[in-house]
Amino acid sequence: MKKSLYFIFSAIAIVFYSCEQVQKVADVVIKPTAREKYERDFANNDSLYIKWNIAFEKAKNDSLQILMPYSEGGIFSSEENLVYSYDLQLKEGEKIFIEVNKQTDSLQVFIDFFKKEKDSNSIKSLRFIKSAETDTAFLSSEVDSSSEYKIIIQPQLGVEFPFQLKIYVQPTYIFPVSGGTNRDVGSFWADPRDGGKRSHEGVDIFADKGTPLVAVTDGIIADTGERGLGGKQVWLRDGLFGKSIYYAHLDSIGTTTGKKVKAGDTIGFVGNTGNAKTTPPHVHFGIYKGSVGAINPYPFIKQTEIQKVDTSIEFNKAIVSRNRTEVAKASISGFKILGNLKKNDTISILGKSEDFFHIQSKSGLKGFISDKTVKPLPSY
Q1: Partner of 377 at 20 to 30 A CA spacing, among 8, 49, 303, 314?
Q2: Using an 8 Å Cβ cutoff, are 285 and 246 in contact?
Q3: Could you tell me where the DSSP H helices lie in the chain?
Q4: Cα 163–166–170 angle (5° rounding)?
Q5: What is the DSSP secondary structure assignment for residue 93, as one 8-state letter?
Q6: What DSSP assignment string belongs to 148-199?
Q7: pLDDT tens-digit profile of 103-158?
Q8: Binning pLDDT at 50, 70 and 90, where does residue 333 land?
Q9: Which pLDDT belongs to residue 308?
Q10: How far is CA 226 from the centre of its chain?
């Protein structure tokens, strides 16, 4: 009898172990998102899961707008399926970062990143790009085309905990002039040249003659020399089939053709050679992409800030203190008003961003309202 039980339990263990291994192998091939892995724990008819999933699908149609950098602090609610959805404009050359800081690492927060695309009928749809990996609340992604994007953030079911959200962009490349900043850029992409006969295919960064110029990324020096309008120049190739990065008007060249360089290596020095002889010393910095040709290089090098998170919020239910309180599309003035709330309306607080609360009304209206129009829901 004991032997029979032993074999039965052994067989069950082998089957269970095998299923687990098969799933792991399948995951390597299929690469399911963190959300898809989480959904395996629920039956298709689980009512709580169904509501949770419906809330996520509805959030795809939200239209709240944020500008970079953006931050928000709040408390994820255990009572409601609140989903955080944001639209934003991003430019090629930027790298987006989405961070949700939480007190307990074991609690799951799902971050999904989409690109908005139009079909032949100009109807916008969402193309999935990336999700935060399982057991993380962090996502980063390089932006390969200037467009409108959407971020959706949703906590796991049935938990309540405070969070801090930061969404910001950083440049794909480092700044090309040693010690330089955005303020040193004196001429931008598409500025008119030769009385409007042509436009500027790059940016001009001004600095003292002899200031080191650095490789903005790891790559290979594709060409160096002195010729034409660019005077002394260096071409850096970002990868075998990557972008061509152009430095012009150098005082002297500090590298050689074919050399492998790392980001930050000195490759030349600021000057005013070529057609820049009558201008202050500067480097013309340009980027060329395959058959497209010249593209705007500024987003690739523009230095950006990370906004401080407001952590003062201590409640997730509130009432409106004024009649005709406007619910705005963004947490800054000048954006569309989505609706109005009446005095004593009860609202859910998703979070706080500077002087605005991110809210959802009982009717499902989401938006931003001034923090001067809200007070905590009284407890009885």
Answers
A1: 49
A2: yes
A3: 2-30, 34-39, 47-59, 298-301
A4: 160
A5: T
A6: EEEEEEEEPTT--EEEEEEEEEEESS--SBTT--GGGEEE-TT-EEGGGTEE
A7: 787 899 999 999 999 876 656 799 999 999 988 999 999 999 999 999 999 999 99
A8: confident
A9: 77
A10: 39
β-sheet bridge partners, residue 115: 127, 149
End-to-end CA distance of the chain: 62
Helix (H, G, I), strand (E, B) or coil at 59: helix
Question: Is residue 307 pLDDT above 80, yes or no?
Answer: no
Given phi > 0 = left and psi -120 to 50 = alpha, else beta, which region is 233? Answer: beta
pLDDT category, 79, cuts 50, 70, 90?
confident
Least confident of 53-62, 177-186, 190-199: 190-199
Nearest alpha-carbon partner for 253 in 194, 212, 310: 212
Q: Read off the tokens for 333.
A: 């003035």
pTM of the model: 0.86
DSSP state of 207: -
In degrees and rounded to multiples of 5, residue 50 shows phi and psi of: -60, -45
Q: Are 204 and 283 in contact (CB under 8 A)?
A: yes
N residues, the chain: 380
Can you give the pLDDT at residue 4? 58
- Chain mean position to CA 172: 12
Give the tokens for residue 162.
Answer: 């405070």
Q: How far is CA 224 from CA 255, 295, 337, in A?
A: 8, 21, 55
Distance between CA atoms of 100 and 139, rounded to whole angstroms? 9
Q: Is-contact 226 213, C-beta < 8 A?
A: no
Record the tokens describing residue 346, joined without a space.
């009860």
Q: Which residues pair with 99 in a beta bridge?
A: 138, 166
Distance CA 21, CA 175 (A): 46
Joined together, the tokens standing for residue 241 give 């089939």
